[in-house]
Specification:
Shape: globular
Number of domains: 1
Order of helices and strands: HHHHHHHHHHHHHH
Helix content: 55-70%
Number of helices: 14
C-alpha cells in the first residue's frame, strides 16, 4: 500500500520481515557463531536483547497499522475514520511520525550488521540464495496469496466477478508487482543484500572500526545525523511525494541505506556489544532532547495547526529540512537508547519472551488480515479514535500471535516463518 505523505509524513505500511532466528545455517546455531566468524572467536553468547528488540518492533508495527485504521494519516487496506479534533489529530501525527522515524531504520541497521557475518560465513552464491529464500519467498507469498485474499474478502478493494477472476486479472496486468503491502521491507532488504553481496564479491570489505573515545564517537555521530538529514532532504526536494519504489517513498531510502551500511560497518567493531552504555544513553538522550523543541517549532510554525501540511512532505523549504533533521535525531537517539536499555535490562528470555520471539515473523506476515478482521468487528464500538487504536493493537496482537503459533508454525509454511 503506497503511503499517504501528508501531515508529518506519516506512513502506514511498515514492518520488519527479516527473520532473525532463521538466518543461520545448520552448522551455525547461534548469533554468536556468526560473530565468531568475524572476530575469530569460536563462539559467543546469543544476543537475546536483539531477539527482544525484534518482537517489540513487531508489536509497534501492529500499533502503527491500528493507528492507520483510525487516524487521519497514513494508508492502509481498511480504514474506519471519523471526524477528529485537533488534539486527536496531533496525537496521531506525532506518534506515527515518531515510530516511523526510528523503528524501521533500526531494523535495517541490525540486518546490515549481521549481513557482514553471514557473507563471511557463506560466500556470495550461498549468501544470495539464502536471502532469496528468507526474504523473497515470504514476499511472494504475501503478494500472490495473503495480500489478494485480504483485499478481496476483507478490505473489499478489488472489483467484482469473483476472486478467481480478479486474481488472474491482478497477475495479468502486473499489479501484483506493486502489492508488497507491509512486506516492502523484505523486498527492500533483499535488494540491499544483493547489492552488498556484489560489493563484497568485488573484493571490497568494511574496515574494522572499534568504538573510540566519547569525543570522537560523538563527532562521528553528529556527522552521521547531518548526512542522513541532508541526503533525505535532497531526495525529497527532487522526488514527488506520490512516487513509490518497492512501495516506499524514495525520500525514506537515504535513511534506510545509511543505517544498513552503518550496520555492516559496525559488525567489524562489534558495535552492538562494544558501544559503551554511558555513551549510548548520553548521546541518545541529547539527540531526543534536541528533537523535542524542533518538533514543537515544526508544528507551531510549519502549518500543521492550520491544516497546511504539504511542506512536511518535501520540497525546497525549511519545514521539510527541519523535519528531515528531526527524523535523523530521533532515528539515532532512539537507536542508541534501545541498544543501552535492552542490552542492560532485556538480554534474557523466559518462556513468554522466547515464544514471542519465535512467532514474531509469522505475526508480521499474517497480521494484515487479522488486524483488519478485528477492526471490522470493533466498528460499532463507541470509543474515541485513540482508545480504539489501542484496543485494536491488543486484539490484533493476541490474534496474530495465536495465528502464527497455532496455524503458520504447524503448517508447511513453518519452513519460512
Amino acid at each position: 500500500m503506497v503511503a499517504d505523505w501528508r501531515f508529518l509524513n506519516c506512513r502506514g505500511s511498515s514492518g520488519w520481515s527479516w527473520r532473525w532466528s532463521r538466518w543461520r545455517d545448520t552448522a551455525d546455531t547461534t548469533a554468536g557463531d556468526a560473530m565468531g566468524a568475524v572476530t575469530g572467536a569460536r563462539s559467543a553468547p546469543r544476543l537475546l536483547f536483539i531477539d527482544n528488540i525484534r518482537w517489540s518492533m513487531i508489536i509497534l508495527v501492529l500499533s502503527m497499522h491500528a493507528c492507520d485504521t483510525y487516524s487521519p494519516f497514513g494508508n492502509w487496506y481498511y480504514v474506519d475514520r471519523r471526524p477528529t479534533g485537533l488534539g486527536t489529530a496531533l496525537f496521531f501525527g506525532v506518534y506515527q511520525s515518531f515510530l516511523q522515524a526510528f523503528f524501521m531504520a533500526a531494523l535495517f541497521f541490525i540486518a546490515g550488521y549481521f549481513a557482514a557475518a553471514a557473507y563471511d560465513r557463506k560466500g556470495f552464491a550461498p549468501f544470495v540464495r539464502d536471502r532469496f529464500l528468507r526474504l523473497g519467498v515470504p514476499t511472494l507469498l504475501f503478494m500472490l496469496v495473503i495480500g489478494p485474499l485480504t483485499q478481496y474478502f476483507l478490505s473489499w478493494t478489488w472489483g467484482s466477478g469473483g476472486f478467481g477472476h480478479q486474481w488472474f486479472k491482478h497477475i495479468r496486468n502486473g499489479e501484483w508487482l506493486s502489492e508488497t503491502g507491509p512486506m516492502w521491507f523484505c523486498a527492500a532488504l533483499l535488494v540491499f543484500s544483493i547489492v552488498y553481496g556484489l560489493i563484497r564479491r568485488s573484493g571490497r570489505s568494511e574496515p574494522q572500526i572499534s568504538p573510540g573515545d566519547d569525543r570522537a564517537s560523538s563527532l562521528w555521530l553528529v556527522a552521521f545525523v547531518i548526512a542522513m538529514a541532508a541526503s533525505t532532504f535532497l531526495v525529497r526536494v527532487g522526488v514527488d511525494e506520490g512516487a513509490s519504489v518497492l512501495n516506499v517513498h524514495p525520500g525514506d531510502f537515504p535513511q534506510y541505506i545509511l543505517m544498513f551500511a552503518a550496520g555492516a560497518l559496525g559488525c567489524r567493531g562489534n558495535w552492538l556489544t562494544a558501544l559503551p552504555e554511558r555513551f549510548c544513553i548520553r548521546f541518545g538522550a541529547l539527540a531526543l532532547a534536541a528533537s523535542v523543541p524542533l518538533m514543537a517549532v515544526l508544528i507551531l510554525f510549519g502549518g500543521g495547526l492550520q491544516g497546511e501540511t504539504q511542506q512536511y512532505s518535501g520540497g525546497f523549504n525549511w519545514v521539510s529540512a527541519g523535519k528531515c533533521l528531526w527524523e535523523a535525531l530521533v532515528c539515532v537517539g532512539m537507536g542508541l537508547l534501545m541498544l543501552a536499555v535492552y542490552r542492560r535490562r532485556f538480554d534474557w528470555q523466559g518462556p513468554v519472551s522466547k515464544w514471542l520471539s519465535d512467532n514474531a515473523f509469522g505475526v508480521y506476515l499474517i497480521h494484515p488480515p487479522v488486524l483488519i478482521g478485528a477492526a471490522i468487528l470493533l466498528h460499532t464500538l463507541a470509543l474515541n479514535a485513540i482508545a480504539k487504536a489501542l484496543l485494536l493493537t491488543v486484539v490484533a496482537a493476541i490474534g496474530s500471535f495465536a495465528a502464527s503459533a497455532f496455524v503458520l508454525r504447524k503448517s508447511p509454511l513453518r519452513a519460512i516463518v
